[in-house]
Amino acid sequence: PVSRMMRGPLLVVFGLLCWASSALCAVVVSTSPSVLASSLSPITLSWSGIVNASASDFLSVYTPSTSDPEAEIGWFPLNTASNWITGAGQITFNLVNPHTDYVFRIWTVNASYVQTSLKGAGRNHTGFSPVSISDVVTFQNPYEPVQGHLALTGTQGEMRVMWVSGSSSPPFIPTVQYGLTEGTLDLTATGVYATYDITMMCTAPANQSDFFRDPGLISDVLLAKLLPSTRYFYRFGSNQTGWSQVMIFVTPHPVGPNSEVNVVAFGDLGIGMAFESKYEQQTPSLTTINRVGQALSLPAYKSAFSHLSKHADSVGSTPPPWTIMHIGDISYARGLAWIWDWFGGYTQPVASQAPYVVSMGNHEYDYTGQPFRTNWTDYNTDSGGECGIPYYARFHMPDNGDVEAMYPPVKGQPSPRNLYFSYNQGPVHFIITNAETNFTAGSPQYNWIVQDLASVQRSVTPWVVFSGHRPMYSS
User: Fold this and answer.
1) Quick check: 156 and 254 in contact, CB under 8 A?
2) How far apart are CA 66 and CA 321, in angstroms?
3) Among the listed residues 37, 145, 152, 135, the one whose alpha carbon sits nearest the alpha carbon of residue 95
4) Maximum alpha-carbon separation in the chain
5) Which pLDDT tens digit goes with each residue over 242-281?
6) Crossing angle for the helix pair 285-297 and 338-351, nearest 10 degrees?
7) How many Å apart are CA 103 and CA 86, to the nearest integer?
8) What are phi and psi of 222, to 5 degrees?
9) Taking the model in full, what pTM does it have?
């Protein structure tokens, strides 16, 4: 048996590393390719040489490659391959770019191996031994701009673009190039970037090194003076970090009683990663994202609501402008920071087409010691110690909520935002509330809601949509 504490000599076999033992070195795991072109590129992991293969054998996923061998972010049971019983097989899946590297290990049954302690998100390795490790897997562009999404600002003619680049990026100015045709991106807007670190997390597991990952540099660029009901082509990035592919969005229709708005709304999405994990995953989320993408891509005249639309015939093959409302419980990271990377990667195809409106849920904020906690609420530790920090930094909603009255900014931390806000779209006034912070009579949020409702002009927006993550009443 080989203890994980052993640090013996390494042998090079076919360009791979394995622990020094003839039995162990017979197992080979390889990657193809070992350098991926871009985020969510497919990778194939192949292995061979396992003697007496067991249905319990597994392949672990690590990022960065220097992670503790017992602190993987997930794993694949080897028996998912059709010929696993032969001791060989392969798995193909898509890999997100977290702006660091990956490595993969094969673990096989070894009854005498005992794990000293559970590490991070890793599974219990007692009864298994690591028998082979792959080459390090990297991406062609370590600074690649990824996880793009759009956001409303509350002002007609504006659209916000946000994305993530690698923390090791050379100095750059976040830039969006956009225009009315794919070949003519003749307009330019620039912005700023920010980040957060492990010291800003409130409690475990978010503030533990086995769980925290560098989030990268989160860029925020505002586009202004956009025409209504108009299709724009755009890309984001910089010459220093590289550029995204060219993407498309359609600006909202003008605000007014005779206008219209297309909204898809849901909550508790989370994400299902390509591999198994020690923690619950929301695997149906991928189906939801695909269905939303199909709806967003349909021309107006093919929409299920075309018979209600005033614009179905006038915009031809252009999809109508949509807005996505994600009403709380966004990624379900719960302190496992790499889940934010997977969530941002898988939602980019829809969140880059339509503004992605988010509201706070218990899994973004709730933590031991939160300021608002009463004997009639069930607030727990559902954020895994994140206490809203990734949510504040990764999203930027309209700024018209009186948030600073509740939570003054803390020096060195992302300013609290996206707690509650409102905006007009088409004939609707949308109000987004937050039940994780004080909403009782006399609180800043309560007073803001009263003032916001009083300001609604029914002659302009005859409809009001009021939303929040928790139900107002339940039995």
Assistant:
1) yes
2) 44
3) 37
4) 80
5) 999 999 999 999 999 999 999 999 999 999 999 999 888 8
6) 20
7) 24
8) -105, 125
9) 0.91
